Each structure stands twice: as C-alpha cells, then as structure tokens.
Amino acid sequence: MGGWGTGWFGMIFMIIFWGLIIFGLVSLIRRLIQNTCSKGHSGIGTGSKAMDILKERFAKGEISRNDFDSMKKDLLQ
Questions:
Q1: Which entry of 7, 26, 31, 73 is 20 to 30 Å from 16 by CA?
Q2: How many CA atoms lie within 13 A of 61 on its CB side?
Q3: What are the tens digits of pLDDT across the range 1-33?
Q4: Per-residue 3-state assignment (H helix, E strand, C coil) for 20-49
C-alpha cells in the first residue's frame, strides 16, 4: 500500500478539499441571499436617488432652502 495520497497525508488533503468546497458553497449561498434581500430594502442606491430627487426639486424651486436642508438632514441620518 503506501502509494501517494494514502494514509494520514491523503486524509488531511481530503479534509482540506471538502472543507474548501463546503466553504465556497456556503459563501456563494450567503452572497446570493444578501443580494436578493438588499434589492427589496432601501439602501445606498435608494438614498442616492432620493437625494437626487431632492436636489432636483430644490433646483426647480418647488421647495425652499429650509425645506431642502431639513429633508437633506433626514436623508443623511
């Protein structure tokens, strides 16, 4: 017996191999879950879009400087 990959040496590499496979699958699943969950909730992209709309409304004169500052403060919290 004693061929390459047998005994303790082979067992250690087999454990490392399967550990990396499991780690990779768990990481992939977590990333997919986080991406799908973050699309439904407000995040950085939504805050940026809200700030753009606020700036546009201020530029058009729809809201005053005080309203703009108040809403901006609320968005940045």
A1: 31
A2: 0
A3: 555 656 777 788 899 999 999 999 999 999 988
A4: HHHHHHHHHHHHHHHHHHHHHCCCHHHHHH
Long-range Cβ pairs for the range 40-47 (8 Å, 24+): 47/75
| pLDDT > 60? residue 74 | yes
Q: For position 11, what pLDDT does the model report?
A: 85
**Exposed, middle or buried: residue 2 (CB in 10 Å: 0-12, 13-18, 19+)?**
exposed
Instruction: State whether residue 17 is helix, strand or coil.
Output: helix
Burial 25-62 (b: 16+ CB within 10 A, else e): eeeeeeeeeeeeeeeeeeeeeeeeeeeeebeeebeeee
CA distance 22 to 29: 11
